[in-house]
Amino acid sequence: MSKKIIGIDIGGTTFSSSLFDEDLNIIKTSQKEFISNISSTNKLLDSLVGQVNNFDCDELIGIGVACPGPLDSKSGMILDTPNLLLLQNVNLKSELESRTSLPVYIENDANLFALGEWKKQESNPSVFGALTLGTGLGFGIIINEKIFSGGHGMAAEYAISPLEHGNWETHISISGIEKMTLKNIKKKLTPKEVHDLACLGNKDAQNVWDEFGVHLGLAMSHFINMIDPQMISIGGGVSKAFKYFSNSMKSTIKDNCPSYAKNQIDIFESKHKELSAQIGAALLLQTKAKS
Question: How far is CA 114 from CA 83, 120, 204, in A?
């Protein structure tokens, strides 16, 4: 009987899981659960295990988990991640292994999103980048079919790099967008609310997305100038507003990136969102199980 794999995607706002066969075809997907409804670390761990148990599958190889960083993927320890306080300094690998009696492998969610998105590309790019836009900002890099994680497993943690006022997540995050709405619309709105207003043609909402796109374009300019990717996929909940911030983002990138201006670097909205992180998590487990 074919073995099965579970891929879990934990974000700063929600988490969900999928059951895959050995060819990474989806068999079943859980519902999203909201972290804001969970009051403690133990309850979050129990909810993650609950999703695993609900698949009711006896042929499991193990579990791959995408989780916000920074984290130590070798030990499975989540470090001082700013976007998921309930898992700060928790060894997620050992906690889940003890609760499920299955092997568990952990990796940065942006890295696994990048891996899952790369897997979906027919062109098989040798240098592939990805971003996740949500509670925070995540970067992932795939080089020659593998996650580039650096010398210590913590590469691409660029979002926490300091700026004159805060860091990139000060502007490129849900909270950053909410601050922009206070300035442009004179009240605090969620990204979804700003998206819905933009859909109605509201100019103030479009101004928010234009400002967001400029900040995002500056961060991506640094990223592109460092790795010169052939493609970049953008995912996360905020990416649903891609068509409203893409023009200012791409214009800013063009002004600051010689490679983008000269070459056809494809920057696009992910069609798969959190599913790509789950696929990346399953692929991570599959790779580890074979090694």
Answer: 19, 10, 33
Tens digits of residue pLDDT in 20-50? 999 999 999 999 999 999 999 999 999 999 9
Specify the pLDDT at position 1: 54
Q: Which residues of the chain have pLDDT under 50?
A: none
Q: Give the span between the Cα atoms of 184 and 178, in whole angstroms.
A: 10
pLDDT of the residue at 34: 95
Q: How far is CA 270 from CA 38, 45, 85, 152, in A?
A: 28, 28, 27, 28
52 C-beta neighbours (distance < 10 Å), count? 21
Domains of the chain: 4-110+274-290 (3.30.420.40), 121-269 (3.30.420.40)
Stated pTM of the model:
0.94
- pLDDT at position 164: 87
* Continuous H helices in the chain: 41-54, 92-100, 109-119, 168-171, 174-184, 191-199, 203-227, 242-256, 258-262, 274-290
The alpha carbon of residue 160 and the mean position of all alpha carbons in its chain are separated, in whole angstroms, by: 15
Picking from 3, 5, 18, the residue whose alpha carbon sits closest to that of residue 278 is: 18
